[in-house]
Amino acid sequence: MSFSMGFYMAVQWFPGHMTKAKKDFEKNLKHNDMVIEVVDARLPKSSENPMLNQIIKNRGKPHLKLLNKSDIADESITKSWIKEFNQLKDTLSLAVSAKNKKDRISIKEACFSLVPHRGTSIKPVRAIIIGIPNVGKSSLINLITQRKIAKTGDVPAVTQMQQRIIVDEEFILTDTPGLMWPKIEDETQGNYLAASNIIGIKAYDDTEAALYLLDYLKVHYKNLLIKRYQISAEECEQPSEVLIELIAIKKHLVVKGGQSDLKKTSVMILQDYRHQKIGLVSLEKPEKD
Ligand code: G4P
């Protein structure tokens, strides 16, 4: 399969924009004590921005890596990720959910533990928060600040301003503007991000994303698929192109003439995954697992 043009359009790393984003981030980093990075717990590697991670590493700033949306990820896989990330230098990793009010305290405590020499009204902790679009950065900012803070622009070419948010007298957050795209290395990663609603709706093909999703679920969550779509173990082992037809028939999703409605079936499968109808699923595992 060729690399989908849509992905390029959606997440292209425009060299000029990237150079500017990199410079801005490096400048911002100097005035902050630590970085809070938000990723999606279901795909914590693919939802990183590798360029920013390299800068953080080079600068040796304390790094809090928040695996957000852990309420909808596979808990055991999230635990493995946390273990893996916690082995990285200067890094502390936490599984959180912007939907869970209690996580506000754990996030703040983690920040204070990473910068023990600050955290007073004279020397507040200054944290810069980063994350690619749709990982839940704004939702987490709202959770941390207990306010509704306007979103910084995530669209290239829109004027973007960094936002300094005084959480309280001991804690200052700086939100970064957009241009923090993931770097899509291959078709699989692009389709997993699409299935997880991280890249925009016009950037991918529903059927392609659903087929990639089925390919993964068949191997890693076979029993969940069998249960959700009332298919047999043998049916589940069919190639995804065949399996999707079987699911269409089971769900009576057919077009005139009796053929399977692949578009509708694909959208249904994607929605089922996004709304946890299949179960709590993660699409990436640490390599060592
Ligand atoms: P961003 O700033 O990183 O771009 O992301 P934003 O906070 O706008 O969140 C993107 C979507 O992810 C929103 O859903 C939001 O509700 C959802 N979300 C954020 N954090 C979590 C989390 O921890 N758990 C779950 N389950 N969902 C989370 P939406 O459908 O776009 O909007 P909404 O109608 O839910 O507000």
Describe this structure in words.
The protein is α/β, with parallel strands linked by helices and 289 residues long. It has 2 domains: 16-175, P-loop containing nucleotide triphosphate hydrolases (Rossmann fold); 205-274, no CATH class. It has 12 helices and 6 strands. Strands 3-2-1-4-6-5 form a 6-stranded mixed beta sheet, with helices on both faces. A hairpin with a 2-residue loop joins strand 5 and strand 6 (171-175). The radius of gyration is 20 Å and the shape is elongated. The protein binds guanosine-5',3'-tetraphosphate.
Please give a quick description of this structure:
The chain is built from 12 helices and 6 strands. The protein is an alpha/beta fold.
State the assembly state of the protein chains.
single chain
The first-level CATH class of the largest domain is given as: Alpha Beta
Strand adjacency order, main sheet: 3-2-1-4-6-5
In this entry the ligands are: guanosine-5',3'-tetraphosphate
Question: Helical region count?
Answer: 12
Q: In total, how many domains does the architecture comprise? A: 2
CATH architecture of the largest domain: 3-Layer(aba) Sandwich
Mean pLDDT: 88
What is the CATH topology assignment of the largest domain? Rossmann fold
